[in-house]
Amino acid sequence: xxxxxxxxxxxxxxxxxxxxxxxxxxxxxxxxxxxxxxxxxxxxxxxxxxxxxxxxxxxxxxxxxxxxxxxxxxxxxxxxxxxxxxxxxxxxxxxxxxxxxxxxxxxxxxxxxxxxxxxxxxxxxxxxxxxxxxxxxxxxxxxxxxxxxxxxxxxxxxxxxxxxxxxxxxxxxxxxxxxxxxxxxxxxxxxxxxxxxxxxxxxxxxxxxxxxxxxxxxxxxxxxxxxxxxxxxxxxxxxxxxxxxxxxxxxxxxxxxxxxxxxx
Length: 264
Known about the structure:
Layout: E1 3-7, H1 15-21, E2 27-30, E3 42-47, H2 58-70, E4 76-80, E5 89-91, E6 94-96, H3 105-122, E7 128-132, H4 148-157, E8 161-165, H5 166-176, H6 180-184, E9 192-197, E10 199-201, E11 211-215, H7 219-232, E12 236-239, H8 245-261
Parallel strand pairs: 1-2, 1-12, 2-3, 3-4, 4-7, 7-8, 8-9, 9-12
Antiparallel strand pairs: 5-6, 10-11
């Protein structure tokens, strides 16, 4: 059965929201800003501030040890593959190299190899490790990290899982001026353990920049997620929508119905 999870977002600051949402999901995905949450059923942790493609610090590893010590129901810990720059500048939410040096493909691959070995020593064998795809923007800070071949190498060579973000893939495909399905299908989809999804702003013109805006998923997006679950035996689906609790309630009910109708 597919596990329907949602992130522990600001919506969980309201007890009425928690009471309304809790019957509608199977589990929760915790994130760094909500690490102190004691809500039950936190089986995923999205450590999006940790990039195994970089050299990590003792502080990073201590943070992961805190996750392992405090989240006893963990089944998946996922990491970001966000930028080839260790300390990029940010303009309007987009990474820019600035004065930060860029890591090469080989340097990032070597970092992942070293870091994953340490991650495995921190988390028990029941915890699956996964890496997420990011958006591409043509600034120089996203080269290689959004290349499907690079992501395949990280996943397959290190025997880890893939967290597929549909919105990130759509943004990347548009900003790279390539066909979405062609781009998506080059990713390591057969190692997908979790799908995060929402809708983004995808302009009609190839000259305009697509952006990940975490909009309410459309019927087409939901249909795609269901199809991917069937094709790749995905275990968790996670809508990344936080803007309105009423819309989220309706979305969760719709997702449950779609999963049931499809025997998932």
